[in-house]
Structure prediction request, 239 residues.
Amino acid sequence: MTPPQPGARVLIIEDETTLAGMIAAYLSRAGYDSSVVHTGPDGVRAARDLAPDVVILDLGLPGLDGIEVCRQIRTFTDCYVIVVTARKDEIDTLIGLSVGADDYVTKPFSVRELVARVQAVLRRPRTGSTTASGTAPSEPTRVFGALRVDRDGQRVHLGDVEVALTPTERDLLMALARRPSMAFSRRQLIDDIWGTDWVGDEHLVDVHVAHLRRKLGDAPDIGRYITTVRGVGYRMGQG
Ligand code: CA
Prediction:
């Protein structure tokens, strides 16, 4: 097990009190500081007040549904959001532009698996922060036609306009841009971004790529900046 990141705070928004308590117990055993709320409006308030690093969000909530909670949370924080849903067909919407979840688990799930997801997102480098080793290596800004990817500043510009990305979209683009000539398989991208212990449907990568392409002005299924490599996965294009 990876040691927990010191001071990492997790907010659990879940109306099933037994399940919420169980998730909180596992998280504190793993060394995290967790808080639990049971309704949508309390979730939005707590996300604002507690400034969590990760939010675990159940979709079926009283007061305000999880999709709306996620949308509201996204207006003031770029913390990682892991959604808990019973409906797999909602996932494309969830990761979508206006909702901006980073990862999901489908019910029924094991709490151990959920805790592994929390650990995986917390291992990712954050905007403006140094790397896990404490030293931020200097990364060149890479240019792909009109697209400029500044890995040091974790910023992305299309022409003169900065593109607003969710944390996962940003991580995905940074990973691809780091080795622009390499064709990445979905699993390689998952290992890089979600972590090698992530277990789930690799379609998650395609969903994030589709939304990222849209933000870069491309069609979701064809990208000038992120090209599909048939039989392999994805690679940066020249724009
Ligand atoms: Ca529920």
Notes: The chain has a mean pLDDT of 85.
